[in-house]
Amino acid sequence: VISRGRRASKATGFEVVALPHLPLLYRVAYRLTGRRADAEDLIQETFFKAFRAFHQFQEGTNCKAWLMTILRHTHLDHVRKTAKEPPTEPWDEAEPRVDGSQLSVEQIEFALEKALEAEVEQALRTLPSQQRLAVILADLEEMSYEEIARVLDCPVGTVRSRLHHGRALLRQSLWEFAKARGYIKPWGEV
Amino acid sequence: MMECQEVRVYVSAYIDHALTSDEQEAVARHLSACENCSTFLALEVQTKRLLQERLPQPQLPSGLHERVVQGLAQAEPMELEERWRFPWWLGRQAPILAMACAFVLLLALTIFYATPRSTQASPFVRDSVEGHVKCLLGERTMEVTFATPEELARWFQRRLNVSVRLPRFTRQEQSALWEGRLSLMGGKRAGQLLYRWKGHTLSLFVLPGEKLAIMPGEKQLRSGRTFHVNHHKGYTSLMWKVGDVTYCLVSDLPPEEVMTFASEEQTSSILQS
Asked: How far is A66 from chain B (nearest CA, A)?
């Protein structure tokens, strides 16, 4: 039986090693879910799971990536539970229909300039979850590709392609928003 | 020079300084010469900047830290219970139960190790069975077809650099054709030919030279010849030696029948090419 002392030292260890990453994890959770309440739930569950599995964490390894992996799994579980139908195809590997080369650069640049916060948020949220997480971790949290690969449990090359496709999909969504709002005329004028 | 399509993925990583120095150099070289990719680079930079500028980083909601810590306090007793509490209903029977478990485990291990394992097959047995199955499935086809075994033997001789004897078995169906191919067994070159009997196909592998010093499998004597019987993936692999040549007959027939088939050769048709 674990003594009180060991239990206390485990809690202290967790507080010192894991809890400092709370703000970062919350930011990522917020960007993943898009809602404060959902992000809080996700965080609570992530830390709960992490604490219970803390004996599996190897001291001296990357705690940030370890926590982020638990967050990713927990989020995926949530998505699967709430989704009416399970995704049937490898939706996380979606490639943009338009890679930008078919659109005029001026149009895209203009669309990006005009993009509102809400639109960027929405564009990010419509990305397939693995691409979304890759973009969040690389562009918003400036994590290294090696760390992201550990979180996504994939090779670094896959991180590269997920980011590449993710950003292209983002541009495409923003271009479509701009077109819908009438900033970009169908015949190509700005 | 890299192709533009190929470069684009690297350009995305280039702006994050996430390339090796070689890749970084190659991309830089391409960018300096390619206007389209330079434009793409600018778009990537703009996209990354857009995300950082338009999406303000959310602040940690007040009280969340405390709520998380409170949540952990609830996690503790549950974890202790799950990990350490012995089920009450086992109570005093625990030692007996532990002994019974140990006994069952020992028995299982004994059975496990006493049973011959097809997965531990020698590479020769494994290759012969796999080669046979691939031919049956049509994944491998015979390379040559001859009307007589002499011709096939000569074809093998040119490729294996030794003369081989192709047995003509008494029970084999008199097929008009002698089909053969070169195969590998345990990394060595071997000839493979097909026989037919009772609607089954049997592959004979002919491995020349003293390459197989110790033959795997259970020894069985039949008609004055020592056969080595192996099983792998539900197939029988029967090996025997004549002089320097190792023969290996593979079939889905039971070992007894394969041995019956292999033990009776037409002595008159032994071929020495």
From this structure: 17
